[in-house]
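testing teh design pipeline on a random one, pls ignore if ur not involved
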């Protein structure tokens, strides 16, 4: 058993990376793990993000091609397994960690005189790449916060697909039938790949060894109910091997179907509870306090909220169905944040009083309230070094107490802004 399959077995049994590592590394995002054959003629490269290689009579078909930093190691791993030419690559979606490195295979084909490989993806992938080029600065700042990078980083050049599809596509490669089906979930351009002859399912980020990344507060709209339906559809295929977008593969039909069905159940529960409260006229704050994620699902080793959080998924559902107004009329056209903070400071007797109370609350473990008050203090007195220092310390505590990578990254960025 290689490194990838060894990690797969340990993580299924709850013996994988501890919670601290999972929160910071999101299973395999910390780097490269290795390559293992998971079915006859199918290899899985554990990386950030994963790549699945399928050996066919006409060459390799790659499901995703890697991230900007690790694509060379992914290619090296693929070549340690097979020297066959690459026939095609399928993008499961257009996130940057899945779509880099294809140029090396094209160059390889030129050097050997092989037929040029092509890229197949959903038709919305090209629109995503166009949007990424328009918002590269914003996405760079997101990455800096989310992954604790020292400077904003985001690419502006992408390998666009050669062929696209809308609902589904069948790729016939020799005698191999590869079925590709569109499913809105984490993205609007998502697809999963099914090899019926080998019982192998490549999910992309529709399954990632964590609670579904379906509420990310810094990203575009996501689709919980359609995601759940896609998970049910995939479980109905009865796959023998599940190759996820992140995290190790899952071997065995029982395990694969359980992972997919449990993920669907979690999204369905959050969706049902959120809509029930919205239909009663509840404000967003009431919805956030009223929706309870099923504890037995969050305890699954593959559904822990180490990347995204159920609370964020609820917020995303509100945005999907209700827009940005949260039901509080004071928030419809609010005052400038600094004006509100200065008025609050005047009422409290100065920004330093807000800071003192924030520190006391943080010491009591009331970190959400502490952050509200210290943020107001910092806005009211932006040049006060003592307030800035306390802001850094409080957000550092909030980051340390956060379970998900997304929340940790945002709070950690706030702490670093203040020198915390």
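output:
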């Amino acid at each position: 058993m290689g490194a990838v399959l060894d990690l797969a077995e340990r993580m299924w049994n709850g013996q994988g990376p501890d919670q601290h590592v999972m929160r910071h590394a999101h299973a395999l995002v910390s780097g490269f793990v290795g390559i293992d054959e998971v079915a006859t003629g199918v290899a899985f490269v554990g990386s950030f993000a994963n790549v699945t290689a399928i050996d066919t009579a006409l060459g390799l078909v790659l499901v995703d091609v890697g991230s900007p930093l690790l694509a060379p190691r992914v290619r090296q791993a693929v070549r340690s397994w097979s020297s066959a030419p690459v026939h095609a690559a399928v993008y499961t979606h257009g996130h940057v960690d899945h779509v880099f490195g294809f140029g090396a295979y094209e160059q390889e084909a030129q050097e050997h005189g092989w037929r040029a490989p092509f890229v197949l993806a959903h038709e919305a992938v090209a629109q995503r790449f166009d949007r990424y080029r328009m918002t590269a600065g914003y996405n760079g700042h997101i990455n800096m916060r989310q992954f604790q990078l020292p400077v904003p980083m985001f690419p502006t050049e992408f390998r666009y697909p050669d062929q696209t599809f809308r609902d589904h596509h069948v790729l016939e490669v020799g005698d191999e039938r590869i079925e590709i089906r569109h499913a809105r979930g984490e993205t609007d351009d998502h697809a999963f790949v099914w090899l019926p002859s080998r019982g192998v399912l490549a999910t992309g980020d529709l399954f990632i060894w964590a609670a579904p990344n379906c509420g990310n507060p810094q990203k575009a709209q996501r689709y919980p109910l359609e995601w759940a339906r896609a998970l049910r559809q995939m479980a109905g295929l009865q796959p023998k091997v599940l190759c996820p977008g992140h995290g190790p593969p899952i071997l065995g039909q029982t395990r694969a179907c359980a992972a997919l069905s449990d993920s669907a159940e979690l999204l369905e529960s959050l969706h049902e509870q959120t809509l029930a409260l919205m239909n009663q006229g509840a404000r967003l704050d009431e919805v956030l306090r009223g929706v309870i994620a099923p504890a037995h699902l969050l305890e699954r080793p593959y559904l822990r909220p180490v990347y995204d959080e159920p609370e964020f998924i609820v917020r995303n559902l509100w945005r999907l169905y209700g827009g940005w107004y949260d039901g509080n009329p004071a928030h419809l056209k609010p005052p400038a944040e600094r004006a509100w903070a200065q008025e609050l400071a005047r009422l409290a007797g100065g920004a330093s009083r807000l800071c003192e109370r924030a520190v006391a609350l943080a010491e009591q473990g009331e970190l959400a309230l502490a952050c509200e008050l210290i943020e107001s203090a910092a806005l009211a007195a932006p040049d006060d070094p003592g307030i800035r220092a306390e802001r850094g310390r409080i957000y550092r505590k909030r980051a340390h107490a956060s379970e998900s990578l997304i929340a940790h990254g945002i709070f950690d960025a706030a702490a670093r802004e203040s020198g915390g």
